[in-house]
Design a protein that fits this description.
The chain is an alpha/beta fold and 486 residues long. Helix content is 36%, strand content 15%.
């Protein structure tokens, strides 16, 4: 396979998702000449937006709401506001409606959130309050590779709860169905059956993020976050080349460091034809054993009006969790984990244009939603998803002007990192929670090739920390080589 004709560089990053761009930026900050290669014509990976329903309606193709982006220990330090990024903050991060017409809200205020949970308010404050008080230290500790914590008591409080199952923690901490359902919706972001250990971790982090800052969207669409990251990278001398598909690492120059914003399956594909990787048998075995998790089935809607929620509080929130009770959400996620599609799936729903009018024509709205299904699921979930929305917003279907549907195969076709529709870069079970994709984390058997995708710690989410830590690993390894050569 012919070599690619590329500019001279100290490092090549394959993939322009948030982790790839974060890695490129960190190296460029250290004076490295960096080139980012993107196979698609539009950069961004899972952080892209486009008009996929009707003209004038801007939809986020994959991710839409960014609690971790705003709280990221790395992305939050970048001057992205000087490169065009504006955040839009809903009045409430989250609403979780119930069949009786009420809703629990996740507010910026810890006290206000607790008050809405009634008798379980004090229990919520005891669980979340200590984490919110030191949220920056928490995020620095959790959003990184395994290491001895700098704040052991804080991390112990987090870890003792985070390693529990979402179902178990909800039942032991809360007494009311309202609070249990509210917590279950947060835990379902783990993309695990809620009986699985560690499915509570994401619930705690999302709650803390809401109280620390909020769950914002990028004004103008998620693509604007990518645009700002690339603009900053270019200000540091970095380059991004789109429409450049890498089919084998043998196509790349031999001298630069290579960072790959791809999953283990993608790495296997890129190394299968090159003699440089003939000694990788043991490492290849680890990559082949890497497990992918449940898939997503995603829809976007162009709406003629705002969603007619039965609970008026839902109009205050950017994100809505549609699943009702703890038991119902557990059943939905368990079925997806067992290879079945739930009849009443838990639906994660976002309504960004309520808080960012630039996404839709005047008087119109956009909406975004998905549920979890088995990896590679080939069935149709359109009716089930829309019925779940209709359950809490009677008349929703009458608002629909057009819809876009992406099942697992569509997601993978548009983004090869979404293997079988898995948006997390691999299952987040205990076996793959810390050592992703293996003991080497970002390092491969080759001293010049590194992984920087969500298949490495700290895992999924638009925070850029996988890329940051991969770049830090590169910088440390080059420093050791330089010192040993003296």
């Amino acid at each position: 396979m012919a070599k690619l004709d590329l500019p001279s560089a100290d490092a090549i990053v394959v993939g322009s998702g948030p982790n790839g761009l974060a890695a490129a930026i960190r190296l460029a900050q250290s004076g490295w000449r960096v080139v980012v290669l993107e196979a698609e014509d539009t950069p961004g990976g899972g952080v892209r937006s486009a008009e996929v329903t009707l003209p004038g309606f801007v939809h986020d193709l994959y991710s839409a709401v960014y609690p971790f982006g705003f709280c990221s220990p790395f992305l939050s330090t970048l001057p992205l506001d000087h490169h065009g990024l504006e955040w839009a903050f809903p009045a409430a991060a989250l609403a979780h409606p119930f069949d009786d017409g009420s809703a629990a809200l996740l507010h910026h205020s810890l006290d206000e959130t607790a008050a809405g949970l009634g008798p379980d308010g004090p229990a919520y404050q005891r669980l979340i309050g200590p984490l919110v008080a030191d949220w920056q230290e928490l995020f620095s500790g959790v959003l990184g590779p395994p290491r001895f914590p700098r704040h052991p008591f804080l991390m112990a409080h987090f870890g003792l709860h985070a390693l529990r199952s979402g179902r178990g923690l909800a039942r032991s901490v809360f007494k009311t169905e309202k609070a249990r359902g509210f917590f279950a919706g947060l835990a379902a972001h783990s993309i695990l059956p809620l009986e699985d250990l560690s499915s509570s971790a994401i619930a705690l982090m999302l709650a803390v993020a809401a109280h620390a800052a909020g769950w914002p969207v990028a004004r103008g669409g998620s693509q604007q976050l990518t645009v700002a990251l690339i603009s900053y990278l270019k200000s540091l001398g970095g380059q991004v080349i789109t429409g450049c598909s890498v089919e084998s690492l043998g196509q790349l120059p031999l001298s630069p460091v290579v960072l790959l914003d791809i999953t283990p399956r993608g790495l296997l594909r890129l190394t299968q034809d090159s003699s440089e990787f003939g000694s990788w048998d043991s490492y290849r075995g680890k990559l082949e054993r890497f497990r992918y998790g449940m898939a997503s089935y995603k829809m976007d809607w162009a709406l003629g009006s705002a969603v007619p929620w039965r609970a008026p509080e839902c109009k205050l929130a950017g994100t809505i969790h549609l699943g009702g009770t703890l038991d119902e959400i557990c059943e939905s996620e368990r079925k997806a984990g067992e290879g079945q599609a739930a009849e009443r799936p838990f639906v994660l729903f976002a309504q960004p244009s309520l808080f960012d009018p630039s996404r839709a024509p005047a008087g119109k709205q956009t909406a975004w939603g998905y549920c979890h299904v088995p990896n590679g699921y080939a069935g149709d979930m359109v009716s089930a998803i829309e019925q779940q929305v209709e359950r809490f917003a009677p008349g929703f279907r009458d608002c629909i002007l057009a819809r876009s549907v992406m099942g697992p195969a569509d997601l993978e076709r548009h983004n090869q990192n979404l293997v079988g529709g898995d948006i997390a870069g691999g299952a987040l079970n205990l076996g793959q929670l810390f050592l992703r994709p293996g003991m080497g984390l970002y390092q491969t058997p080759s001293p010049r090739i590194f992984l920087c995708s969500s298949s490495t710690p700290p895992g999924p989410g638009v925070h850029g920390m996988c890329g940051f830590w991969a770049a830090e690993t590169v910088l440390r390894s080059r420093k050791r080589l330089s010192n040993s050569a003296r």
